[in-house]
Structures are given as structure tokens and as C-alpha cells.
């Protein structure tokens, strides 16, 4: 019986941790809330003795990231963009065995590095194509170099524009306009299988499947909105109510475990007498 209460205590603790993380990231750009999934813990003999065996408690089945799009919040910054629809921004993550590796994110709060590369808020290079692909492709994207578009001097940049199709253009101080490339959006067979690296940075896994890349606005890929950011999809009120429920479950199982412990101690003392 103590094992049943202990499993409930562990499940409630997991639920509290997930909810606390949701609340902590309620203001994080493009953060997706998670939900802990639980199931009955049954005896191994349930199949042979279905009328006798009873539940043995609860177990955590999974923690699922909820993929609903957050609302758009205006920033009026030319380097802030949001995806309206499906897809993830592709970010450079280094190299492995000589090949470029990638991370993925919905957060479009970009900056320009000192060497003219378009980067994420985490300092990762934003990847794209010099010429936008006509459809989905597995060809690896490359860094978007604004230095080259600015003629080798960042001081030549007057403004940066990213249109609905993800085309990044640089308006220069001399009045000319140069194209730096097109953002590469990634899609996955199973988006829920992406692994969280840190914050809103995600990584491909065997469960998510390999990505296919495409230009924004193409079939299956969302379009780009400039001057806005996607907010988290966390409902603070909902999370607080859920936290109260999880806390009550935790306290209830804790009291049950304490009561069971006292009963066993009392029984042991009676036997000794």
C-alpha cells in the first residue's frame, strides 16, 4: 500500500515540476507549454487474474509539449519575426564529423553579430539559402551573411527587412538594396518528438524524424511576419489552477504515506509486545 502512495507522490512531484517550468517561461518568446501524462500502474498478473488484481498506483507515461501557436506581440523591430503557420527557424549548432549540425526554434528575435551573421538571441547563426528552394528539400542551408550584402561594412546598413516569404534584404545608406538570402524553415514528421536543448532551442531525434526544409509561404511552411514575436502559449491562470490541484494531490499522498508508516510502526510494536 505504501508503494501506491509513493507512486502518487512521485507523479504529483513530476506534475508540479512541469507546471512550475511552464509558469517560469510564461513570458519566454515562442515557449511551448508541456503537460505530464499519467496512467494506471497495474500488477504484472493482471492478465491472468483480472478479477483479483487491483491498481498499484500511478506512473508517468510522458511529458508532451503542446504545439499550439502563441499570439503575436508587436515590437516594431525589423529583426523580430514570427512564423504564421508551420515550421521552425533553422539554427547552426556546430559540426559533427565535418558536417554542419542544426538546432530549431520558433523564436524569431534575431540580431546581427559583429561579423555580419544573422543570429538568434542565443548567438546561434540563422540558416537559409542564397536562392529560395521551390519546394521542400533536404539540402543543408547555410548562414545568412549580411556583411556580404552590405558590401563588407556593417556601417553601410540602413535597415534590414524580412518579408513574408522569408527573403532578407539590406537597405544601404547609399540608397541601394541587396538580398542576403531566404530563411530556411524546417518541418518534421513528428514535431512532438523534438528534444528540448535549452529554453526554446530544440533538437532533432529519431522520434521526430529527419527535417525537410522549405521557404516560408511554400506549401506546408508558414509565412513570416516582421516586427512581431510569437508569445508563449502558456495561460498563467490555467497553470496556477493546475498547480493548486497538483499540490493537493502531493499533500494527500504525503499524508497517506505518513499514515501508512505509522500503522506499520504500530503493528510492529504490537507484535514485539
Keywords:
273 residues, alpha+beta, 2 domains, 4-stranded antiparallel β-sheet, 23% helix, 32% strand, elongated
Secondary structure blueprint with pairings:
Elements lengths: L1 H23 L9 E7 L17 E8 L6 E3 L6 E4 L3 E9 L2 E7 L5 E2 L5 E2 L7 E3 L12 E2 L2 H4 L7 E6 L4 E6 L4 E7 L1 E3 L7 E4 L2 E3 L8 E3 L8 E4 L1 E3 L5 H37 L1
Antiparallel strand pairs: 1-2, 3-19, 4-18, 5-6, 5-14, 7-8, 9-10, 9-13, 11-12, 12-13, 14-17, 15-16
Helix pairs in contact: 1-3
Q: Give the oligomeric state of the chains in this entry, treating copies of one chain as homo and distinct chains as hetero.
A: single chain
Q: Would you tell me the overall average pLDDT?
A: 88
Counting DSSP E segments of at least 2 residues, the number of strands comes to 19
Cα-based radius of gyration, to the nearest Å: 25 Å
Structural class: alpha+beta
Q: What is the number of helical segments per DSSP (H or I, 4+ residues)?
A: 3
Helix content bin: 10-25%
Low-confidence stretches: none
N-to-C SSE string, H for helix and E for strand: HEEEEEEEEEEHEEEEEEEEEH
Main sheet record: 5 strands, antiparallel
What percent strand? 25-35%
How many domains, as an integer? 2
Write out the strand line-up for the largest beta sheet, numbering strands in chain order: 10-9-13-12-11
Please state the overall shape, judged from the principal axes of the Cα atoms.
Answer: elongated
End-to-end C-alpha gap? 24 Å
Amino acid at each position: 500500500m505504501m508503494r501506491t502512495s509513493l507512486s502518487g507522490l512521485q507523479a504529483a512531484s513530476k506534475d508540479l515540476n512541469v507546471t512550475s517550468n511552464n509558469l517560469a517561461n510564461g513570458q519566454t518568446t515562442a515557449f511551448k507549454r508541456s503537460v505530464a501524462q499519467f496512467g494506471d500502474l497495474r500488477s504484472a498478473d493482471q492478465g491472468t487474474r483480472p478479477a483479483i488484481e487491483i491498481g498499484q498506483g500511478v506512473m508517468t507515461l510522458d511529458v508532451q509539449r503542446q504545439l499550439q501557436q502563441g499570439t503575436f506581440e508587436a515590437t516594431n523591430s525589423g529583426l523580430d519575426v514570427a512564423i504564421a503557420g508551420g515550421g521552425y527557424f533553422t539554427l547552426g549548432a556546430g559540426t559533427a564529423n565535418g558536417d554542419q549540425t542544426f538546432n530549431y526554434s520558433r523564436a524569431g528575435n534575431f540580431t546581427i553579430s559583429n561579423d555580419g551573421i544573422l543570429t538568434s538571441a542565443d548567438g546561434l547563426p540563422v540558416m537559409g539559402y542564397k536562392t529560395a528552394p521551390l519546394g521542400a528539400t533536404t539540402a543543408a542551408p547555410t548562414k545568412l551573411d549580411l556583411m556580404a550584402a552590405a558590401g563588407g561594412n556593417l556601417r553601410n546598413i540602413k535597415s534590414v527587412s524580412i518579408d513574408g516569404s522569408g527573403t532578407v534584404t539590406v537597405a544601404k545608406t547609399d540608397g541601394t538594396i541587396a538580398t542576403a538570402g531566404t530563411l530556411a524553415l524546417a518541418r518534421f514528421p513528428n514535431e512532438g518528438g523534438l528534444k528540448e536543448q535549452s529554453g526554446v532551442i530544440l533538437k532533432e531525434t529519431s522520434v521526430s524524424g529527419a527535417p525537410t526544409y522549405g521557404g516560408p509561404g511554400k506549401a506546408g511552411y508558414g509565412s513570416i511576419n516582421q516586427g512581431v514575436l510569437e508569445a508563449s502559449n502558456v495561460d498563467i491562470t490555467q497553470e496556477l489552477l493546475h498547480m493548486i490541484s497538483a499540490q493537493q494531490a502531493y499533500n494527500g499522498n504525503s499524508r497517506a504515506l505518513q499514515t501508512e508508516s505509522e500503522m506499520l510502526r504500530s503493528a510492529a510494536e504490537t507484535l514485539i509486545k
